[in-house]
């Protein structure tokens, strides 16, 4: 065994579901330093597995659960893990983050990552603990929601296990199915379908294997100070209101996608405000494990079933916009029920809302024979979500996402299918946040706000968000680099406001955990390397420059009905292309985005 | 006298309990608008201002377009000043 490095086990577990065998494999120290953990290390693992060449739903496809050097440490918000695979929705690399006890306990199994290949012959759960790996039949769990399946599995094997599982949508290979743990979801890109294709219902982890830390006393002192800062004003929004408070701000700014991106403000936005969602009953607040911020707000939910008790549903801005304004739905209870239904079925709310909103527009234009599917029809929204989760009727077409649906519907619908690389666009109107538009276009996993975080540039004094040009690229690269590092260390992005100098802070945390004397400039190179490695994966999977763009709607239609702030906003193809070329050159790629050499 | 509409969103709205307010200001700068608002709404002064500046964690936006924390920012009659949490966006 090589010398130990704080924060790492320096090995991963590879499980083959076809042979029901597992092996431990070492991870070289230079790889850990070059790719850190989480999203970065997972990208390296997928390249090692040559995952780009396989159909994402074939037995050969690799699925990686990756932990990080910081998880398990006393640093607040570090209890996170990443799931990676080639996405069945996009055909490109996909990394989805989730949180809480599965991250902490998963790392205590003694591995920095768990890679799963092959496919089981019958529904199976994988159990990993200090005694090794075993496989249990999941026939009894098949068909259950991830929550019920996890509860039943823990009843069976013990409460010390933490479980990540799929719901019916994953079993049914819906291409935007989620993987869930404790009500939190690795949501984007359909990795639940990858699990489903392997007949893998659940992974349960338990263990006692801890890593050491290079400077434990200094780490504890640093962590205490960070926790103290996390109670401050930079995170007040998340603590007090949660991300749903974005809705009214975005509506005022004209950046709230409405009716499938036909406008940037919603006349009924006020009815979806947090106060309306909670109405007469109090919402409650909770948090991921090891988090001092606690951004999760649980809203009271009236049961659809008169025989069931009312309950609560966790709601984020992205679910609120996708199932609310994007579908023209103004009834807060319908939005909460839709979010709850997505959770039960195991569906990504952004892609669900995006694909159904697209279908609503097709139906309104007479391109799709679905008489009840109209913007604002909450009952039709709920019915369609059920059909998607079970791939029945219209749900069969929509279960493949808006890109595939548009290819089948044709008749010009491709122009307004709301995706980049097949991934539905999140809740930022690209014509009104144009640095974010660049981030969507060049994002390696498709239209994605979290990997790019370029909206931070638009919502600052650095640019005029309606007239962005090449000068914004340097800022977009900085936010993408920071996001890449946070997703690899891993730390919650809601902590970002507490740091005066994020790179210096991240370097210091890594030093305290690992002992590496690492500089901010080394971290910048690390971010560059990880982003280039993701690009390399995509090139091997068939990427071409033509897919780094936005749907034609955003070039052809000036933004209307978007308030005084954003009405009339337009993004031109040439403007975006100039930004993309500047971005590519700044990444040291060719003008059109090909890599220029080996990963450094 | 020139008039500016001050709109509150998110945490500031939660803290002051008001959605919007019109203030009249002789000399149109962001600082003067913030101080005039605090004169009308003491809770705003207590919870959102350090002197004539917004506290850390808060941000102003002018007419839905321009983001700023610069108290010297000149304003025009009939402008709207939005008071927001500084971390706009996020999932
Ligand atoms: S801030 Fe929210 S998402 Fe982030 S770790 Fe805490 S509870 Fe989880």
Task: Walk me through this protein's architecture.
The complex is a heterodimer of chains A (600) and B (91). With 600 residues, chain A is an alpha+beta fold. Chain A folds into three domains: 11-205, Aldehyde ferredoxin oxidoreductase, N-terminal domain (Aldehyde Ferredoxin Oxidoreductase,  A, domain 1); 242-424, Aldehyde Ferredoxin Oxidoreductase Protein, subunit A, domain 2 (Orthogonal Bundle), CATH 1.10.569; 434-586, Aldehyde Ferredoxin Oxidoreductase Protein, subunit A, domain 3. Chain A is globular. The mean pLDDT of chain A is 96. In chain B, a hairpin with a 3-residue loop joins strand 5 (58-62) and strand 6 (66-68). The interface between A and B is medium-sized, with 40 and 27 residues. Bound molecules: iron/sulfur cluster. Residues 77, 99, 238, 287-288, 291, 293-296, 492, 494 of chain A line the site of iron/sulfur cluster.
Properties at a glance:
heterodimer, A: 600 residues, alpha+beta, Aldehyde Ferredoxin Oxidoreductase,  A, domain 1, Aldehyde Ferredoxin Oxidoreductase Protein, subunit A, domain 2, six-stranded mixed sheet, 24 helices, 17 strands, globular, B: 91 residues, Ubiquitin-like (UB roll), two-stranded antiparallel ribbon, binds iron/sulfur cluster
Describe what is shown at a glance:
The complex is a heterodimer of chains A (600) and B (91). Chain A has 600 residues and is of the alpha+beta class.
Could you say what the CATH topology of the largest domain in chain A is called? Aldehyde Ferredoxin Oxidoreductase,  A, domain 1
Q: What share of residues of chain A is helical?
A: 25-40%
The global form of chain A is: globular
How many distinct helices of chain A? 24
The DSSP helix count of chain B reads 3
Please tell me what the overall shape of chain B is: globular
N→C terminal distance of chain A: 26 Å
How much of the sequence lies in strands of chain A comes to 5-15%
Largest contact between chains: A-B, 40 and 27 residues
Radius of gyration of chain A: 22 Å
**Low confidence ranges of chain B:** none
What's the structural domain tally of chain B?
1
What ligand molecules are bound, each kind once? iron/sulfur cluster
* CATH fold descriptor of chain B: Ubiquitin-like (UB roll)
What structural class should be given to the helix and strand makeup of chain A? alpha+beta
Number of strand segments of chain A = 17
The named CATH superfamily of chain B:
Beta-grasp domain
